[in-house]
Amino acid sequence: MQPRSPSRSAAPRVEELIARRELSAVFQPIIDFENGAILGYEGLIRGPAGTPLEAPFALFAQALAEGCTIELERAAARTCIEAFARLDFDGKLFLNFSAGAMRQLAEARDDTLALLRHRGVDPQRIVVELTEQSTILDVSSFLPVITTLRTTGAQFALDDYGTANASMSLWVRLQPDVVKIDRFFIHDIACDPLKFEAVRAMQHFASASGARLVAEGIENEADLIVVRDMGIGCGQGFFFGRPHAQPARQVTDDARDALRAGHIAVFPETTRTVSSASPSGGMASEKMLVHAPALPRQATNNDVLELFNRLPDLHAVAVVEHDEPVALINRRSFMDRYALPYHRELFGKRPCLLFANASPVVIEKSMTVEQMAKLLASDDQRYLADGFVITDNGKYVGLGTGEKLVRAVTEVRIEAARYANPLTFLPGNIPISSHIARLLGNDAGFYACYVDLNHFKPFNDQYGYWQGDEVLKFAAVVLADVCDPTRDFLGHVGGDDFLILFQSDDWRERVLRAIHVFNEGAQRFYAPADRLAGGIHGEDRRGNPTFFGFVTMAIGCVRVEPADGPSLYSSEEIASVAALAKRRAKHETSGFVLIDADESVALLRGQAEATHVSLE
């Protein structure tokens, strides 16, 4: 009778697997982005193939149930070290341990060293990773554990940073040599602004602490290029290789090509919607906040008078109870009333609420700019005369005036428009200049394409700004559709002017497709009679009657070749040359012109020099 193969439903005990040495090791490469070499491998454990305990999660869950988790960790480490030694690979070996297992390693330091040396792995090639499941109740008592492990020559890493117990406080106190960013933050980082900002904050902290970052979970080229261009030095993930018992000794051709790609990433921070790109309401509230004392509910009118006389610039005073505003007393209204004959004698000792507005306008400090703007447009205009109260989580912090509210909202919106256009939500002038500078600083070849709409002003004059805005939004959609978001940067300079910074190889086809799609689609914004006539009648800039054809798209492009050294151009010069190309494109039937940066920048510099000489 032939023996039956193990059933998948049969779950052997972990202690038996350890005793029978039925655990196996797999390894996943960790890549150094700078030279494209394999820095080392993370050793991972597997249970017997074909059994319910093959997957590591099930294996450790069973060990937890049996109360032998640390024994499993030690057996896993021994298995990985033995397999790694047999492979005779170069580079470092990353091993996962809980805090408890690390304490045992430190306590049995001599045994640990003996194991490593017996298997032929130099301790200096070992990186001990503290797993995210570890809860360290007393960090100060754990510090000697790290010190002891480092004396063996091993390095210390914080694993899966950003989740569970891998916190910034732990980073600060343990000072790891390596920090591995959890895959949650890396997956889709190329299109997620919040993940990008989170990783950038980790990067700044790593630079300050001297820790080396490893980005886990890299699964596609777009995420790799973003991580690479951020300056993170190492990474691992399925894009480089899945865990395997016989992992590759070299980086795959696809991964090497991606690491050496000449184009730079389009960071997702530059494509945020205006709601997230705009400064917060907190910034606006700070601009209009007037720090002013408040009076308690039981205060008298004489107390109000004394305060106004002591602070002649105070436009109002808030009345509070338990630090929460209950009323507002306007200075002018109060003083005018108090100036009447006998009012001081009659009302001086009466409660201040007698002449107060019991339902003042209250603005929470965290109120968004858009909410403040709605307040400006509302029917309730009491704040214009009385001012308003500013609170933080319902607690009084100060006052504001209608004038300051208008100025704060206006300033914040102007500042926001420099970063993102409020109509199309596309990046504005500052992100545009920043991306040009990154392209030039990285010696990346690209095409700067300035986009303009012909006959847009007469269309806007006749059909109104509302319909004109719809045309601009349509143009933004068309341009976004022809761009590769991982390679091509699309910005909105303002009005009907857009700028695309192409790194796609087929940029010309994309430009011509945008012109064709827009020119065909723009006609639907005209009335039927105007469509039949082929345009509209209007006036030119001098007031002369003129017939204008349909709104069409013109795109002037500038070729910027990769530089061997420091860039010869500035961001402003590239933008100026692109604007020159756009003006030429407006006179072309095709709506398209391509010029070379070298010749055009030289021409602009010559014109600037001639102007300077003539002024002298």
Automatic annotation (TrEMBL):
Residues 7-257 form the EAL domain. Signal peptide: none annotated. It comes from the Bacteria. SUPFAM superfamilies: CBS-domain pair, EAL domain-like, Nucleotide cyclase. InterPro entries: CBS_dom_sf (IPR046342), Cyclic-di-GMP_PDE-like (IPR050706), EAL_dom (IPR001633), EAL_sf (IPR035919), GGDEF_dom (IPR000160), Nucleotide_cyclase (IPR029787), Rev_trsase/Diguanyl_cyclase (IPR043128). It holds the Pfam family GGDEF. GO terms for molecular function: cyclic-guanylate-specific phosphodiesterase activity. Residues 444-597 form the GGDEF domain. Gene3D superfamilies: 3.30.70.270, EAL domain. NCBIfam families: GGDEF (TIGR00254). This is Diguanylate cyclase/phosphodiesterase.
